[in-house]
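User: I'm putting together notes for a lab meeting next week and I want to include a structural view of one of the chains we've been expressing. I don't have a solved structure, so I'd like a prediction I can at least talk through. The sequence is below, exactly as it appears in our construct file.
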Amino acid sequence: MLFSIPSPHTGVVHLGPLQLHMYGLTLLVAILACIWLTGVRWKALGGEWDLVTRVAVWGVTFGVIGARAYHDITSWNEVPTPKWQGIFEVWRGGLGIWGGILLGTLAGAVVVRRAGYDVAKFLDAAAPGLLLAQGIGRIGNWWNQELYGKPTKLPWGLEIDTAHRPLQYLDRATFHPTFLYELIWDFVGVGLLLYVSRRFAIRAPGLFALYVAWYCFGRFFEELLRVDPAHHIAGLRLNAWVSIIVFFAATTYFVVHQFGAPAPPRRRRKPVEDEHRPAMAIPKGRVRHGR
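Assistant: Thanks for the context. Below is the predicted structure for the 291-residue chain, given as structure tokens.
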């Protein structure tokens, strides 16, 4: 092939006596990016950086626990041996985003609520940052040569070492770079969420629902390409079914919440500046002021 994407032969970089696990370093960069973007957005709403930091500490901690638990439960055969030790070896790969977002979001919501702020508004502030982190985090799969797609001869095929190929594809050298597909999809989603949040007045946590729906839509098609071991139900991978279910749940919630009956008045929490923007279906240019 004239063109292809090379893969690193090892996920560990040696700096003298230090060993840097690039998978873990990639996750750290992803977390910092999420904190930065969420902090900027929350500050613009009148919030404080202190709350973002506290949410990050608890959200990341429980997010990693949830992500690893999801992987261990759904892919027990992939847990390194001995099992008692392998279930904790996050740096060797194996994090299920579903469990991470679920448990991390719940932990963050508890922190926000206990601080007396509006959980729904904070979820909307964090949505683009979470998607940004997921896109960056996929680079860790490239370092580990894992979670790639079916064999391909396309110019952007990903080179995979023999040791990391499935037995049925030992004679194939390049595969679909699903890590790159998701990275691009997530980054486009970040731009879309930022545009929507600035262009329309979204009833919180509508932006968070859009984030979930956007990710699940792309993840479904990614699952159709991947060749790593997975449980199958009715011919589809488990995570493809999860994507379908969560996508329809998030989409339904968004439509009903945005265009259904007005929500009952909520008890006022600590002030976060209300944004005077048009409703979701009305662009800014069509709004008449001074009524």
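A couple of points you could mention at the meeting. The first strand starts at residue 12 and ends at 15. Residues 215 and 230 are 20 Å apart (CA to CA).

User: Perfect, that's what I needed.
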